[in-house]
Design goal:
Chain A is mainly beta. Chain A contains no helices and 11 strands. Chain B is globular. The chains are: A mainly beta, B mainly beta. At the A-B interface, strand 4, strand 5, strand 9 and strand 10 of A face strand 5, strand 9 and strand 10 of B.
Chain lengths: 114, 114
Protein backbone atom coordinates (compact mmCIF):
# COMPACT_ATOMS: atom_id res chain seq x y z
CA UNK A 1 0.00 0.00 0.00
CA UNK A 2 0.98 3.66 -0.14
CA UNK A 3 3.22 4.81 2.66
CA UNK A 4 5.54 7.48 3.86
CA UNK A 5 8.82 6.31 5.27
CA UNK A 6 12.06 7.67 6.62
CA UNK A 7 15.55 6.64 5.60
CA UNK A 8 17.18 7.26 9.00
CA UNK A 9 15.48 6.62 12.31
CA UNK A 10 18.10 8.58 14.29
CA UNK A 11 20.38 11.50 13.54
CA UNK A 12 23.00 12.89 15.88
CA UNK A 13 24.72 16.22 15.14
CA UNK A 14 26.86 18.80 16.84
CA UNK A 15 25.48 22.20 17.72
CA UNK A 16 26.01 24.59 14.85
CA UNK A 17 26.05 21.90 12.18
CA UNK A 18 23.42 21.67 9.48
CA UNK A 19 20.98 18.75 9.73
CA UNK A 20 19.26 16.94 6.90
CA UNK A 21 16.32 14.65 7.58
CA UNK A 22 15.07 12.56 4.70
CA UNK A 23 11.70 11.10 3.83
CA UNK A 24 10.55 8.84 1.01
CA UNK A 25 6.99 8.67 -0.17
CA UNK A 26 5.37 6.26 -2.55
CA UNK A 27 2.01 7.83 -3.44
CA UNK A 28 2.51 9.66 -6.72
CA UNK A 29 -0.88 11.36 -6.23
CA UNK A 30 0.32 13.19 -3.11
CA UNK A 31 0.20 16.92 -3.68
CA UNK A 32 0.94 18.34 -0.25
CA UNK A 33 3.73 17.56 2.19
CA UNK A 34 4.38 18.76 5.69
CA UNK A 35 7.03 18.46 8.38
CA UNK A 36 6.28 18.33 12.07
CA UNK A 37 8.51 18.46 15.14
CA UNK A 38 7.50 16.64 18.30
CA UNK A 39 9.27 17.29 21.58
CA UNK A 40 8.93 15.01 24.54
CA UNK A 41 5.56 15.42 26.25
CA UNK A 42 4.16 17.62 23.51
CA UNK A 43 2.06 17.20 20.42
CA UNK A 44 3.47 17.56 16.90
CA UNK A 45 4.29 21.16 16.00
CA UNK A 46 4.11 22.43 12.42
CA UNK A 47 7.48 23.36 10.91
CA UNK A 48 7.01 23.88 7.20
CA UNK A 49 4.92 22.63 4.30
CA UNK A 50 5.22 22.44 0.53
CA UNK A 51 2.86 21.76 -2.34
CA UNK A 52 3.72 19.58 -5.28
CA UNK A 53 3.96 22.52 -7.68
CA UNK A 54 7.09 23.64 -5.85
CA UNK A 55 10.46 21.95 -5.33
CA UNK A 56 11.85 24.15 -2.57
CA UNK A 57 10.52 26.26 0.22
CA UNK A 58 12.39 28.14 2.92
CA UNK A 59 11.44 29.16 6.40
CA UNK A 60 13.39 30.45 9.35
CA UNK A 61 16.50 28.21 9.50
CA UNK A 62 14.59 25.44 7.72
CA UNK A 63 14.30 24.44 4.09
CA UNK A 64 12.16 21.73 2.59
CA UNK A 65 13.14 20.17 -0.71
CA UNK A 66 10.78 18.08 -2.82
CA UNK A 67 11.98 15.80 -5.59
CA UNK A 68 8.92 14.37 -7.29
CA UNK A 69 10.97 12.35 -9.75
CA UNK A 70 12.29 10.08 -7.03
CA UNK A 71 9.49 10.76 -4.55
CA UNK A 72 11.80 12.20 -1.93
CA UNK A 73 11.34 14.92 0.64
CA UNK A 74 13.97 16.43 2.90
CA UNK A 75 14.11 18.87 5.76
CA UNK A 76 17.25 20.91 6.19
CA UNK A 77 17.90 22.70 9.48
CA UNK A 78 20.65 25.30 9.42
CA UNK A 79 22.89 25.92 12.43
CA UNK A 80 21.21 23.22 14.48
CA UNK A 81 20.65 24.09 18.13
CA UNK A 82 20.06 21.88 21.20
CA UNK A 83 16.45 23.08 21.18
CA UNK A 84 16.03 21.39 17.82
CA UNK A 85 16.38 17.97 19.48
CA UNK A 86 13.08 16.20 18.88
CA UNK A 87 11.34 13.64 16.69
CA UNK A 88 10.67 14.91 13.18
CA UNK A 89 7.79 13.55 11.10
CA UNK A 90 7.03 13.99 7.47
CA UNK A 91 3.47 13.59 6.26
CA UNK A 92 1.77 13.53 2.90
CA UNK A 93 -1.71 14.32 1.69
CA UNK A 94 -2.99 12.29 -1.22
CA UNK A 95 -5.01 15.15 -2.64
CA UNK A 96 -8.67 15.90 -3.17
CA UNK A 97 -11.08 16.72 -0.40
CA UNK A 98 -9.12 14.95 2.24
CA UNK A 99 -10.02 16.78 5.43
CA UNK A 100 -6.47 16.63 6.65
CA UNK A 101 -6.04 12.92 6.01
CA UNK A 102 -2.33 13.12 6.38
CA UNK A 103 -0.29 9.94 6.21
CA UNK A 104 2.59 10.19 8.64
CA UNK A 105 6.01 8.62 8.55
CA UNK A 106 7.46 6.87 11.57
CA UNK A 107 9.73 9.73 12.55
CA UNK A 108 13.42 10.54 12.87
CA UNK A 109 14.96 11.26 16.24
CA UNK A 110 17.30 14.25 16.02
CA UNK A 111 19.79 14.68 18.85
CA UNK A 112 21.89 17.83 18.98
CA UNK A 113 25.01 17.74 21.14
CA UNK A 114 26.30 21.00 22.65
CA UNK B 1 0.39 27.16 23.58
CA UNK B 2 -0.78 25.81 20.24
CA UNK B 3 -4.41 26.90 20.46
CA UNK B 4 -5.57 23.32 20.94
CA UNK B 5 -6.08 22.24 24.56
CA UNK B 6 -6.51 18.66 25.67
CA UNK B 7 -7.54 17.34 29.07
CA UNK B 8 -6.59 15.34 30.97
CA UNK B 9 -2.87 15.15 30.16
CA UNK B 10 -2.60 11.72 31.74
CA UNK B 11 -5.24 9.06 32.36
CA UNK B 12 -5.04 5.61 33.90
CA UNK B 13 -8.11 3.45 33.64
CA UNK B 14 -9.19 -0.12 34.15
CA UNK B 15 -10.76 -2.13 31.38
CA UNK B 16 -14.23 -1.76 32.88
CA UNK B 17 -14.06 2.01 33.37
CA UNK B 18 -15.74 4.70 31.32
CA UNK B 19 -13.85 7.92 30.77
CA UNK B 20 -13.83 10.82 28.33
CA UNK B 21 -11.08 12.83 26.70
CA UNK B 22 -11.74 16.48 25.99
CA UNK B 23 -10.35 18.76 23.32
CA UNK B 24 -10.96 22.46 22.74
CA UNK B 25 -9.59 24.57 19.91
CA UNK B 26 -9.31 28.36 20.08
CA UNK B 27 -8.27 28.89 16.45
CA UNK B 28 -11.63 29.30 14.76
CA UNK B 29 -11.10 26.18 12.69
CA UNK B 30 -13.92 24.16 11.17
CA UNK B 31 -12.47 20.66 11.34
CA UNK B 32 -11.29 18.57 14.28
CA UNK B 33 -9.53 15.22 14.46
CA UNK B 34 -8.55 12.42 16.81
CA UNK B 35 -5.23 10.66 16.20
CA UNK B 36 -3.67 7.75 18.07
CA UNK B 37 0.09 7.66 18.60
CA UNK B 38 1.54 4.34 19.76
CA UNK B 39 5.18 3.66 20.47
CA UNK B 40 7.18 2.94 17.32
CA UNK B 41 4.17 3.40 15.03
CA UNK B 42 3.14 6.30 12.83
CA UNK B 43 0.27 8.52 13.88
CA UNK B 44 -3.03 6.85 13.07
CA UNK B 45 -6.09 8.86 12.10
CA UNK B 46 -9.16 7.81 14.07
CA UNK B 47 -11.95 10.31 13.44
CA UNK B 48 -12.54 13.50 11.51
CA UNK B 49 -15.29 16.04 12.12
CA UNK B 50 -15.96 18.82 9.66
CA UNK B 51 -18.54 21.45 10.56
CA UNK B 52 -19.56 19.21 13.46
CA UNK B 53 -20.38 16.30 11.16
CA UNK B 54 -18.32 13.13 11.27
CA UNK B 55 -16.77 12.68 7.85
CA UNK B 56 -14.28 9.96 8.66
CA UNK B 57 -14.25 6.92 10.90
CA UNK B 58 -11.08 5.07 10.19
CA UNK B 59 -12.24 1.57 11.19
CA UNK B 60 -12.02 2.38 14.86
CA UNK B 61 -13.53 -0.12 17.36
CA UNK B 62 -16.85 0.89 18.87
CA UNK B 63 -15.30 1.11 22.34
CA UNK B 64 -14.13 4.55 21.13
CA UNK B 65 -17.02 6.96 20.65
CA UNK B 66 -16.41 10.52 19.46
CA UNK B 67 -18.66 13.51 20.03
CA UNK B 68 -18.46 16.97 18.51
CA UNK B 69 -21.09 19.28 20.05
CA UNK B 70 -19.77 22.37 18.25
CA UNK B 71 -16.86 23.43 16.08
CA UNK B 72 -14.67 24.24 19.09
CA UNK B 73 -15.10 21.11 21.18
CA UNK B 74 -14.39 17.44 20.59
CA UNK B 75 -14.71 14.51 22.95
CA UNK B 76 -13.58 10.91 22.84
CA UNK B 77 -15.64 8.66 25.06
CA UNK B 78 -13.90 5.49 26.18
CA UNK B 79 -15.43 2.30 27.54
CA UNK B 80 -14.27 -1.28 28.07
CA UNK B 81 -10.86 -0.53 26.62
CA UNK B 82 -8.10 -3.08 26.17
CA UNK B 83 -4.46 -2.81 27.29
CA UNK B 84 -3.40 -2.43 23.65
CA UNK B 85 -5.38 0.82 23.56
CA UNK B 86 -2.72 2.41 25.77
CA UNK B 87 -1.25 5.24 23.71
CA UNK B 88 -1.01 9.00 23.31
CA UNK B 89 -4.29 10.36 21.96
CA UNK B 90 -3.87 13.56 20.02
CA UNK B 91 -6.52 16.04 19.04
CA UNK B 92 -5.97 18.36 16.10
CA UNK B 93 -7.84 21.06 14.25
CA UNK B 94 -7.60 22.69 10.85
CA UNK B 95 -9.33 25.11 8.56
CA UNK B 96 -10.44 22.57 6.00
CA UNK B 97 -9.85 23.75 2.46
CA UNK B 98 -10.10 20.46 0.62
CA UNK B 99 -6.66 20.85 -0.88
CA UNK B 100 -4.39 19.71 1.89
CA UNK B 101 -4.10 21.75 5.03
CA UNK B 102 -1.90 21.79 8.08
CA UNK B 103 -3.14 20.38 11.33
CA UNK B 104 -2.61 22.05 14.67
CA UNK B 105 -2.17 19.48 17.44
CA UNK B 106 -2.80 19.57 21.15
CA UNK B 107 -0.32 18.10 23.63
CA UNK B 108 -2.25 14.87 23.87
CA UNK B 109 -3.64 12.62 26.57
CA UNK B 110 -1.32 9.80 27.62
CA UNK B 111 -3.67 6.89 28.27
CA UNK B 112 -2.76 3.75 30.18
CA UNK B 113 -5.24 0.89 30.31
CA UNK B 114 -4.62 -1.63 33.06
Amino acid sequence: GESVGLHLPTLSVQEGDNSIINCAYSNSASDYFIWYKQESGKGPQFIIDIRSNMDKRQGQRVTVLLNKTVKHLSLQIAATQPGDSAVYFCAENAGGTSYGKLTFGQGTILTVHP
Amino acid sequence: ETGVTQTPRHLVMGMTNKKSLKCEQHLGHNAMYWYKQSAKKPLELMFVYSLEERVENNSVPSRFSPECPNSSHLFLHLHTLQPEDSALYLCASSQAQGAGEKLFFGSGTQLSVL
